[in-house]
Amino acid sequence: MDIDDILAEVTGDGNPPETRDLQELTRAWVTERSAPELLPWPSSLMERVLGRIHRQIEVVEDQVGNVDPKTNFRLIIIQTELERFKFLVRSFVRTRIAKIDKHALYMLSSPTQTARLSASELQYANSHQTLLEAHYRSSFLSQFPSTLQRLDDTAGGISMIEQPDVDTAVFVRVMRDVEEPIVVEGTDIDFEMRRGDVYVVRWSAVREHVLSGDAELI
Question: Which residues contact 185 (CB under 8 A, 6 or more apart)?
Fold first, then answer.
């Protein structure tokens, strides 16, 4: 089973909660890895997934040493499912941390971006930026005039804060028909999004539709 198979699974109410959470986590993982900017932290999903991981670990630890073949087979299934969830969570979090490392000052300077961070990520971003600024000051900034020591300087209308490139091209698959045509800013290109269509387009043109669930990154 590959990622497309998992994403193609039916998400109806008849499926068990762990199946729906696995699919939602997989979508969040693929989208986060494909998007050029940090996306909102899926708090409800992560609470459910982390809670399930902790419960499964407890079950495995309680049953270790049981010689019953049926119990051992059940443990193998639980451990396989557990490793799948743990891999997705680790990769998802590492992807977000890499984006925070690259654009920490930008995220901390923008309330909109800060709101996308979890509590742990916000603490990490503050610590990262504090250490980075201390390193820069001890290495070379202290030798500059005080007017040139700011890392968030915007003098002359040019910002020193590095931002994600929202015009990066992404692959997007349409999940629901979108009534309004999509206009690519700065060009004369516009197109309609119909369910099942796949496009290569600027992230800025489809960002809101991906966040709303009208489309997904692939």
Answer: 202, 204, 205
